[in-house]
Structures are given as C-alpha cells and as structure tokens.
C-alpha cells in the first residue's frame, strides 16, 4: 500500500472556526519554531487527517480572503453567526501577524543601528587596521610596523 493517497480534507464553516480559534490560542506567528506550532494546532483541532501545513495554508487562504474583503468567499458556507465569528477571529489573527511583523522590523532596525555603530567605531573597517599594523615585507611575510625605521626607511 505504498501508493495509498490520503483523503482530502474539506473545511466546513465550523471547521474554519475551530481552526481559527486554535491559531489564536497557539499564536504560531511569534514562535521560534512555527512548523511545530502549526503541527500542535493541527493536533489540537482534532479534525481527522489535518496536517500543520494544511492548517497554515487554510489560515493563509482565509486571511487573504479577509484582507481582500472577499465576503462572498468567506460566506460560501455557514450561518450569519458563523460568518461574523470568522470575521472576528480573522481580524484578531491579522493583528497578531501585524504585531509580529512590527516586532521583527523593530529588531532589524535595532540590529542595523548596532552594526552601523560598530563599523563606524573602526573608521574604515578591518582593511585599514591591517594596513596600519602590517605595512612592509620582511622575509616573505608581513612584519609588524614598529616605527619609522622598521622597514629600513628613515622617517
């Protein structure tokens, strides 16, 4: 049975709500290991045959519909209450994503500023330091510069 196919999972409106609740509860966007978080979400939903990847893809699709304000795609199945709850959950998940993006951008700016400060202190980087320290040849290798006469020159 090496070629046995998995049965395709079709999401109902209720399945979407269960999934979105678990996404909010587990917040995979701020995790250091999002793949494991999505697997935990798949297990927590208790929906048969659902993988972490499938959960991530479905959540992403629902968010795309939500961001495009594609109400028809979100209303395809479900009662008015389910559609409202789905909208509310998607809004909260969108905010989680935006918080994570903002947090990452802030961290990147901070790291960039630190890197610029470190490179600015060196005034020219490693190349100039090497040239200042080792400036003349002696016996097929660089010899440290010990003053004006170290290369056999006067001043």
Q: How many strands, what sense, and barrel or not for the largest sheet?
A: 2 strands, antiparallel
Strand arrangement within the widest β-sheet reads 1-2
- Gyration radius (Cα, Å) is 29 Å
Total number of helices: 6
Class based on secondary structure composition and strand pairing: mainly alpha
Shape from CA axes? elongated
Count the strands? 2
Look at the structure and give the mean pLDDT. Answer: 79
Detail the poorly predicted runs. none
Give the helix proportion (percent range). Answer: 55-70%
How much beta, percentage-wise?
Answer: 5-15%
Q: Report the span from N to C terminus.
A: 85 Å
Number of domains: 2
Order of H and E elements = HHHHHHEE
Biased composition (Basic and acidic residues): 100-110
Organism: Patiria miniata
Protein name: Myb-like domain-containing protein
Region (Disordered): 100-128
What's this, in brief?
By secondary structure, the chain is mainly alpha-helical. The chain has helices spanning 13-26, 34-45, 52-67, 71-75, 80-121, 125-133, and strands spanning 134-138, 141-144. It has two domains: 13-121; 123-155, no CATH class.
Which labels suit this protein?
155 residues; mainly alpha; 2 domains; two-stranded antiparallel ribbon; 6 helices; 2 strands
């Amino acid at each position: 049975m090496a070629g046995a196919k998995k049965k395709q999972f079709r999401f109902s409106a209720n399945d979407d709500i269960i999934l979105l609740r678990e996404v909010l509860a587990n917040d995979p966007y701020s995790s250091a290991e999002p793949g494991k978080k999505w697997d935990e979400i798949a297990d927590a939903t208790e929906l048969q045959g659902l993988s972490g990847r499938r959960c991530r893809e479905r959540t992403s699709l629902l968010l795309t519909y939500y961001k495009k304000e594609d109400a028809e795609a979100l209303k395809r199945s479900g009662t008015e209450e389910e559609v409202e709850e789905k909208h509310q959950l998607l809004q909260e998940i969108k905010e989680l994503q935006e918080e994570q993006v903002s947090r990452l951008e802030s961290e990147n700016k901070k790291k960039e500023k630190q890197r610029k400060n470190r490179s600015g202190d060196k005034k020219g980087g490693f190349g100039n330091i090497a040239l200042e320290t080792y400036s003349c040849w002696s016996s097929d290798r660089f010899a440290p510069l010990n003053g004006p006469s170290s290369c056999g020159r006067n001043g």
